[in-house]
Automatic annotation (TrEMBL):
This protein's GO CC annotations: ciliary membrane; non-motile cilium
The keyword Chloroplast appears for this protein: no
Residues annotated for Mg(2+) binding in this entry: 6
Keywords: GTP-binding, Magnesium, Metal-binding, Nucleotide-binding, Signal
Name of the protein this chain belongs to: ARF like GTPase 13A
Region Disordered: start-end pairs: 145-194, 220-260
Single GO molecular function: metal ion binding
Length: 260
C-alpha cells in the first residue's frame, strides 16, 4: 500500500490495491465519542482498534461497539476489529473477544460483517493490512449490492472507500516483549456473499495454527426451527471455490467456521 498526501489533520490517505482510502482517526476518549456519529454517514466501513489487554474496560468497549453498530448510518457496514496489544501477556485472543464483546449478536442484529485481526502496534503490519484489504472488499461488495436510489453519501463509488478509525479505550504503555498470537486470514472473499442473506445467526471462523483472524458474517436462518449450530472446515486459500468439509470446532488447522 502507498501513503498519499494528506489534506486534513487526523486523516490518512492510502492507496491499497485498486482503492483510494481515507482513514479518519477519531479520538477514543469518552468526551470525544459524541462527535463520532457525525462521520457515520460518509464512512463506508469501520475500523475499531481495541486494547485487548484492558480487561477492566471490555464492557465499556462492548457498549461502545454496540452503540456504533446499531446506529442507522452504520448498521450493515463492514467492521474490522483490530485486537491490538497482542504483545501484552494478558491480551485476550480474538476468539475470547468474540465472547466478551458478544460479537455474534451484534453482527446478527446489525447485519454488519465483521473481521477480527490480532495485532500489536510495534509488530508487523501484515495482518492489519490484510484486514484492511478485507474491509475494502467488503465495503465495495456492499456498495455494489445497494440500490442505485441510495443517497450519494451512503452509496460509495466502488473505487473509493472511507473508513473510521477509533479506539474506545485510552491505552497505557505496556510491555513490548515479543509479538505472539499474530495472525492472518485468507478466506474472506468467498464468505462475503453471505451478507446478502437475511441474518438470524452468525458464522464465526478462524484460520488454524492458533487463534488468528476471525470472521463473523450474518447468515441465513435455520430452516425449520431452533438452531443448534454446526461446524465446517475449509482449506485456507485465496478464495478458491472448494467446498466446505465437516470438522470440529477448535483451533485446528484450516479455516474453521461455525454455521447457525
Ligand atoms: N504494548 C503495546 N502498547 C501499545 C500498543 N498500541 C498502542 N500502545 C500504547 O498505548 C498508548 C496509547 O496509544 P495511542 O495510539 O495514543 O492511543 P489512541 O487510542 O490513539 O488514543 P486516543 O487518540 O486518545 O484515542 C501509547 O502509550 C502506545 O504506545 C500495542 O500494540 N502494544
Ligand atoms: Mg489516537
Amino acid at each position: 500500500c502507498e501513503v498519499l498526501p494528506t489534506t486534513q489533520p487526523g486523516q490518512i490517505c492510502l492507496r491499497v490495491d485498486r482503492f483510494e482510502v481515507t482513514l479518519v482517526d477519531l479520538p477514543g476518549a469518552q468526551r470525544f465519542r459524541s462527535a463520532w456519529r457525525s462521520h457515520y454517514s460518509t464512512a463506508h466501513g469501520l475500523l475499531f482498534v481495541l486494547d485487548s489487554s484492558d480487561l477492566a474496560r471490555m464492557e465499556e468497549a462492548r457498549k461502545a461497539l454496540s452503540r456504533i453498530l446499531s446506529h442507522p448510518d452504520v448498521s450493515g457496514k463492514p467492521l474490522l476489529l483490530l485486537a491490538n496489544k497482542q504483545d501484552v501477556a494478558a491480551a485476550l485472543l480474538p476468539c475470547e473477544l468474540i465472547e466478551r464483546l458478544a460479537l455474534e449478536r451484534l453482527v446478527n442484529e446489525n447485519r454488519s460483517p465483521c473481521r477480527i485481526e490480532p495485532c500489536a502496534a510495534a509488530g508487523p503490519a501484515r495482518s492489519t493490512l490484510q484486514g484492511l484489504r478485507w474491509l475494502l472488499r467488503a465495503a465495495a461488495e456492499r456498495s455494489s449490492l445497494l440500490p442505485a436510489t441510495r443517497s450519494p453519501t451512503a452509496d460509495p463509488s466502488p473505487r473509493t472507500a472511507r473508513g473510521l478509525c477509533s479506539r474506545p479505550t485510552r491505552d497505557t504503555p505496556d510491555n513490548q516483549d515479543g509479538v505472539g498470537k499474530m495472525g492472518e486470514h485468507r478466506a474472506a472473499r468467498r464468505l462475503l456473499p453471505k451478507v446478502r442473506a437475511p441474518p438470524a445467526t452468525a458464522g464465526v471462523g478462524w484460520a488454524g495454527g492458533g487463534c488468528r483472524c476471525l470472521l463473523l458474517i450474518p447468515s441465513s436462518p435455520c430452516p425449520g426451527g431452533e438452531c443448534k449450530g454446526s461446524w465446517e472446515e475449509e482449506e485456507e486459500g485465496e478464495g478458491e471455490e472448494e467446498g466446505p468439509r465437516a470438522a470440529k470446532p477448535g483451533r485446528g488447522t484450516g479455516q474453521t467456521r461455525r454455521r447457525g
